């Protein structure tokens, strides 16, 4: 998913760049080198695997990586808990029978913390653990698979859970009011017109549209859109937000971006109404 999408996206971006040559001259120097890695990083949802069977862990890691996910792996519950405190994954694949802290205990802990309360959990159970399965769903797991399971089926379930929880993270077509962002074609439409965006403005919109209503500081936008390893001044963000605004509202349409004084920017939640 992630890998194919990134390739298609790059081609789209290249053609859009040539259309936008004049307007985006200023962008080029700061975006060319990190374009690929930025695009990949942003598009990849993180899946955490908690599994003590080494062979299965390796197999899962391999397949999820191939599918385009960023993979975190832990062999026991305590280790997983520590890692999750560092980085909140987008989904957790959790084996029920673990040495030490069991899958069910870890699930309970995660559901008890605000940061992880809504992270989807798919549990992996051994055959015949019917009671555990029911307990698991009771305690807040979103889905389960029974060992031995088919990799194709597991991947399909992961995609289904992702789509349900965070549609804007995985879908090719993301809409916000009358704005449509088409990741496959790397295009943006507003109503019935095409919105011409430079590569940086496109990435800005793609980031904001994943979190409608959330306010991002200039520094957060720099990290997410330009990358933390690139030196760009914070006011550069204002310039690109300005360009994005102008392109989105060129026909006098309602401005979807909210400026929050001394805080940053967000996609306006009130925009739809
Ligand atoms: Ca196990």
Description:
The longest helix has 18 residues, at 2-19. The protein has helices spanning 2-19, 25-31, 35-43, 54-66, 77-86, 103-112, 130-139, 151-165, 167-170, 199-210, 218-226, 234-248; strands at residues 46-50, 70-74, 91-95, 121-125, 143-146, 173-176, 179-182, 187-190, 193-195, 257-260, 264-267. The chain is built from 12 helices and 11 strands. The protein has a 5-stranded parallel β-sheet with strand order 2-1-3-4-5, sandwiched between helices. Strands 6-7-8-9 form a 4-stranded antiparallel β-sheet, covered by helices on one side. By secondary structure, it is an alpha/beta fold. Helix 10 (199-210) packs across helix 12. The model is unreliable at 1-42 (pLDDT under 50). The radius of gyration is 21 Å and the shape is elongated. The structure holds calcium ion. Calcium ion (CA) binds at residues 52-53, 95, 97-98.
Keywords:
12 helices, binds calcium ion, alpha/beta, elongated
Number of strands: 11
pLDDT averaged over residues: 81
pLDDT below 50 for ≥5 consecutive residues: which ranges? 1-42
Tertiary shape: elongated
DSSP helix count?
12
Q: How widely separated are the two ends?
A: 33 Å
Strand content: 15-25%
Percentage of residues in helical conformation:
40-55%
Taken in chain order, the helices and strands follow as HHHEHEHEHEHEHHEEEEHHHEE
Biggest β-sheet: strands ordered side by side in the sheet: 2-1-3-4-5
- Which small molecules are bound? calcium ion
Based on CA atoms alone, the radius of gyration comes out at 21 Å
Question: Which structural class do the helices and strands define?
Answer: alpha/beta
Largest sheet, strands/sense/barrel:
5 strands, parallel
């Amino acid at each position: 998913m992630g890998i194919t999408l990134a390739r298609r996206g790059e081609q789209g971006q290249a053609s859009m760049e040539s259309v936008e040559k004049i307007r985006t001259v200023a962008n080029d120097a700061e975006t060319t080198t990190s374009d690929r890695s930025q695009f990949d990083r942003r598009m990849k949802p993180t899946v955490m695997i908690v599994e003590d069977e080494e062979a299965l862990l390796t197999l899962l890691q391999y397949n999820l990586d191939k599918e385009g996910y960023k993979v975190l792996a832990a062999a026991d519950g305590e280790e997983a808990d520590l890692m999750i405190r560092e980085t909140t994954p987008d989904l957790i694949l959790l084996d029920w029978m673990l040495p030490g802290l069991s899958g069910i205990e870890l699930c309970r802990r995660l559901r008890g913390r605000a940061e992880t309360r809504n992270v989807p959990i798919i549990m992996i159970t051994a055959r015949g653990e019917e009671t555990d399965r029911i307990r698991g769903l009771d305690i807040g797991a979103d889905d389960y698979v029974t060992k031995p399971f088919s990799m194709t089926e597991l991947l399909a379930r992961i995609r289904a859970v992702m789509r349900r929880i965070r549609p804007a993270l995985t879908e090719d077509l993301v809409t916000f009011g009358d704005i449509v962002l088409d990741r496959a074609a790397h295009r943006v439409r507003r109503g019935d017109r095409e919105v011409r965006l430079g590569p940086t403005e496109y990435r800005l919109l793609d980031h904001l549209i994943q979190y409608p209503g959330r306010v991002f500081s200039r520094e957060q936008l720099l990290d997410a859109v330009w990358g933390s390893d690139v030196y760009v001044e914070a006011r550069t963000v204002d310039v690109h937000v300005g360009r994005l605004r102008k392109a989105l509202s060129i026909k006098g349409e309602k401005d979807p971006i909210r400026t929050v004084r001394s805080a940053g920017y967000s996609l306006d939640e009130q925009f739809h109404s």
